[in-house]
UniProtKB/TrEMBL annotation:
Keywords annotated in UniProt: Cell membrane, Cell shape, Membrane, Transmembrane, Transmembrane helix
Parts forming coiled coils: none
Record family assignment: Belongs to the MreD family.
Residues that span the membrane, as ranges: 45-68, 80-99, 111-131, 143-165
Protein name in UniProt: Rod shape-determining protein MreD
GO BP term, pick one: regulation of cell shape
Primary localisation category: membrane
Location(s), subcellular: Cell membrane
GO CC annotations on file: plasma membrane
Record carries keyword Zinc-finger: no
Membrane topology: Multi-pass membrane protein
Length: 172
């Protein structure tokens, strides 16, 4: 199924709306989510956002958007450079590859796809934490926390994606 990107006026408005929404998610990520007491609750709000961007925009523009915001998130995180940038670009590329084969209008497909990307992100983070001198963190609790983090990201993805797609008339 091919999605038609329509008029220039809609694209300009949608770009401004998406930019404002991205800044809102950035503020929420930095001020709210990253300060939660349990590591499993510190989800990445931008991964589902990149899923929506990859469907809405052409591949080059969405990869550029993912690189810009991935770099910004890497700068704000302070450790493990390239983690956010790499995971966003991989997610965008996977969405563009699967766009012709999957029906991404279905929220269950959206959730499962974001969940797979979140699981990949958690595995990369877990492998990084294995080699990081972490102190007294139990390996089993770390992997359980990362799995719960992936599950929460998967369940929250429709809530994050809804503002991006709420104005689409061709999906109703």
């Amino acid at each position: 199924m091919t999605y038609i990107r329509t008029s220039t006026h809609w694209q300009n408005f949608h770009f401004l709306k998406l930019t404002a929404y991205t800044f809102f998610l950035l503020l929420l990520q930095v001020q709210g989510v990253s300060r939660l007491p349990y590591p499993a609750l510190r989800i990445d709000l931008f991964l589902p956002l990149m899923f929506g961007v990859a469907i809405e925009w052409p591949p080059v523009a969405s990869i550029f958007w993912g690189c810009v915001w991935g770099f910004a998130m890497d700068v704000l995180s302070g450790k493990f450079w390239g983690f956010h940038l790499g995971s966003y670009v991989v997610a965008i590329c996977l969405v563009n590859i699967g766009l012709e084969k999957f029906e991404f209008q279905n929220p269950l497909y959206q959730m499962s796809f974001v969940g797979m990307c979140a699981l990949g992100q958690s595995v990369a983070l877990g492998l990084y934490l294995l080699f990081e001198p972490a102190g007294s963190i139990s390996m089993m609790s770390m992997w359980m926390s990362l799995a719960v983090r992936s599950l929460i990201m998967m369940l929250c993805s429709p809530l994050i994606l809804y503002p991006i797609w709420s104005g689409r008339k061709d999906w109703k």
